[in-house]
Amino acid sequence: MSLMMDWGRIPTKWAAKKNGYATRRPDGGGRSVTKIALINNMPDAALEDTELQFFELLETAALGISVHVELYSLPGVPRGDRAAEHLHKFYSSTEELLDRKFDGAIITGTEPRQADLRNEPYWSSLTNIFEWAERQTTSTVLSCLAAHAGVLHSDGINRHPLSDKQFGVFHYKRASNHELISGFGDVVRFPHSRWNEVRADALTSSGYTVLTQSLDAGVDMFVKKKRTSLFVHFQGHPEYGARTLMKEYRRDIRRFLRRERPTYPSMPQGYFDVSAEKLLDDFRKNALSDLREDLMQSFPEEALTATLRNVWQLSATSVYQNWLQYIATNKAKSGVFTTGARVSHGRSA
Asked: What is the DSSP string of 203-254?
């Protein structure tokens, strides 16, 4: 039906796109509203894009359901001035979340700085959020690095480094008949962008159900009930827009030209068409022969953008429709309707 946020807490780009329609309606605290906490921990360069991607996905998926979103961010994630100002205007700290109840939560990852996630400066805050979500949501989505951190915290499952970045759009087969992938075909495609993986054998031996899997690309989606909440894990990024992988590839090329990484990045798989790959191969040859950052001025972004298609959008919308329906159905069964109010047992519950 609609995606709503409280007046004064609507990020500028989304407010402009919706012409103010995204405000909270008078019935915002009513029984028909599904309240979602979006805990956006993405790095500065992807922070606002990630907001828009999840807003658009939730709005498209919210058939027959009014969704009210509140934005939160973890302390301890390094921020520049612009991102810090954006968070101050539109986000609340996760410390304010711990004694509230929501129907659902979405927790994104961020770019890791440490080989062991437990050494990240935000680890303690992140695990507090995991434990909060187990008790105070009906279901929680963990995206990419957050999925790796979640299984490490709750089950001691370590991630494994890959020989190269898992980067591009990959095909996955259904590995379960779970309701979250109801309506899927036998094969689905989702974008991935990661240097590590968690493996099916470790997950299944710890009680997780793998929903989608590939012989070549490993596990994509997996779930497990943790206390009162169904935790839904994505190693990939169904929320990505059509241009997101291109922008990440461009960023990685720039890092190479700045000598911030030792090797030229691999092109995303299954994403560009033949003509785009030819343009990028020519650009790579020029870059390898002339290592200058200002070469990025000739990066063929406009020509590449014209070739891009969001071939995973239908599957992404379907899985989030199923997720929102799961929340609504289980709220109705339990007879509990949240308003985002504080819970009586506080943050130690």
From this structure: HHHTT-EE-EEETTTEE-EEEEEETTEEEEEESS-TT--TTHHHHHHHHHHH
148 carries an active-site annotation: no
Catalytic residue, candidates 51, 59, 70, 239: 239
**Which pLDDT score, from 0 to 100, does residue 30 have?**
46
Share of the chain above pLDDT 70, in %: 92
Residue 302 a catalytic site member? no
* pLDDT of res. 1: 58
Active-site residue identified among 68, 86, 192, 237: 237
Catalytic: 237? yes
pLDDT digits (tens, 9 = 90+) for 278-298: 999 999 999 999 999 999 999
The hierarchical CATH code for the domain 2-241+312-334 is: 3.40.50.880
Continuous H helices in the chain: 12-18, 44-61, 81-90, 123-136, 145-155, 200-205, 244-257, 274-289, 301-305, 313-334
The active-site residue, picked from 48, 59, 86, 144, is 144
> Does the predicted TM-score (pTM) go above 0.90?
yes
List the chain domain ranges. Answer: 2-241+312-334, 244-305
Integer Cα distance of 303 and 300 in angstroms: 6
**Edge to edge, what strands does the sheet with 187-197 contain?**
187-197, 160-174, 212-214, 218-219
